[in-house]
Write a structure and sequence with these properties.
Helix content is about 40%, strand content about 20%. It contains ten helices and 17 strands. Strands 6-5-4-7-10-15-16-17 form an eight-stranded mixed beta sheet. Helix 1 runs antiparallel to helix 2, helix 2 (about 45-60) runs parallel beside helix 4 and helix 4 runs antiparallel to helix 5 (about 115-140). The longest helix is centred in the middle third of the chain and has 30 residues, at about 115-140. The model has no long low-confidence stretch (mean pLDDT about 95). The chain binds 5-S-methyl-1-O-phosphono-5-thio-D-ribulose.
């Protein structure tokens, strides 16, 4: 399912907050509207919010004085608004920087910035599809046969293609290497039960939905041969930020000698950050914990915490699967 569509004067966005019960589309006509949609999680997933930010800057290319220093300053300002929408996924910053670089090059070469920015945003979108297939190919070659446990949503609703970790699941099932998937629900926003379960069902991949707290039970019973998750940002030493609960899964996998893999495009690598300690962790409204779809599930007046990502230290990660191959963060370098 393609959750994002370019329409010249606006971008159509599939409202992922409504899934799986309703298929509803909303639109964003400028950077502010796109930043708001990203903040509210109308669309989410690290690669997808990068693509969305690129399209938002292409929309802003309607600014009349764009081929000028003032125009570039205007774009940088809009880029800043987009980058601030969500702090953890580095893909947002990556896509905005790539778009601004393109605008600067076009300005220096006296080329038409508007057309080039639209082409660049479409290229970022198209390239992500190719990256997903390459990640799938790299991943299938190394993951053990059998049952895989995954977390959050890393499929077509989170990327420009079939997904990162999800792409490996899909290809692995096609090649009969993956026989079954365990999908964690991903409290509190339920990307697992609402989105991954929706995708697995559509793709007819056999799966079992579990609450996040059931993972240890199944891992300890030898029911799972590998754990495969996505990433929002990977530090230079391999420490990885991903959906809250990922760290617990990695420790449980390590304890039970089940290999734990991270799948992500290289645009999720942040070489400017040495370790996971320096990755900013997004804190969202505690109401996401206190309520489920508007229904209060805790007494009034109760305080809740809502950090939505955690850091998995590199020592728990057997391999980081990218479009360029598989890196072992504990011995360095890419192989495969
Ligand atoms: O808060 P979300 O839904 O944007 O978080 C998504 C994740 O944590 C994914 O695992 C990650 O972005 C990779 S998506 C290919």
């Amino acid at each position: 399912m393609n959750p994002l569509e370019w329409k010249e004067d606006r971008v159509l966005i599939l409202d992922q907050r409504k899934l799986p019960s309703q298929i509803q589309w909303v639109s964003a006509a400028n950077a502010e509207e796109m930043a708001e949609a990203i903040k509210l999680m109308v669309l989410r997933g690290a690669p997808l919010i990068g693509i969305a930010a690129a399209y938002a800057l292409a929309l802003e290319a309607r600014y009349p004085f764009l081929n000028s220093e003032k125009g570039l300053e205007y774009l940088r300002e809009k880029g800043g608004i987009l980058v601030q929408a969500r702090p953890t996924a580095v893909n947002l910053k990556w896509a905005v920087s790539r778009m601004i670089r393109k605008a600067q090059e076009a300005y220096q070469k006296k080329e038409e910035i508007k057309d080039l920015l639209i082409l660049e945003a479409k290229a970022i979108h198209d390239e992500d599809k190719i990256l997903c297939s390459r990640i799938a190919r790299s991943g299938v070659s190394i993951i053990p046969e059998g049952v895989v446990l995954t977390h959050c949503n890393t499929g077509s609703l989170a990327t420009g293609g079939d997904g990162t970790a999800y792409g490996i699941l899909k290809e692995g099932f096609k090649q009969k290497k993956i026989t079954h998937v365990f999908a964690c629900e991903a409290r509190p926003f339920l990307q697992g039960s609402r989105l991954t379960a929706f995708e697995l069902k559509e793709d007819k991949i056999p799966f079992t939905l579990i609450t996040d707290s059931m993972a240890g039970h199944f891992l300890s019973r030898g029911k799972i041969q590998s754990v495969l998750v996505g990433a929002d940002r990977i530090a230079a030493n391999g420490d990885t930020a991903n959906k809250i609960g990922t760290y617990s899964l990695a420790v449980l996998a390590f304890e039970n000698k089940v290999p734990f893999y991270v799948a992500a495009p290289t645009s999720s690598l942040d070489q400017s950050i040495f370790s996971g300690w320096d990755i900013p962790i997004e804190e969202r409204d505690p109401l996401e914990v206190l309520e489920i779809q508007g229904v209060r599930i805790a007494p009034e007046g109760v305080k809740a915490a809502n950090p939505v990502f955690d850091i998995t230290p590199a020592r728990y990660i057997k391999g980081i699967i990218t479009e360029k191959g598989v890196a072992d963060p504990n011995s360095g370098g890419f192989k495969s």
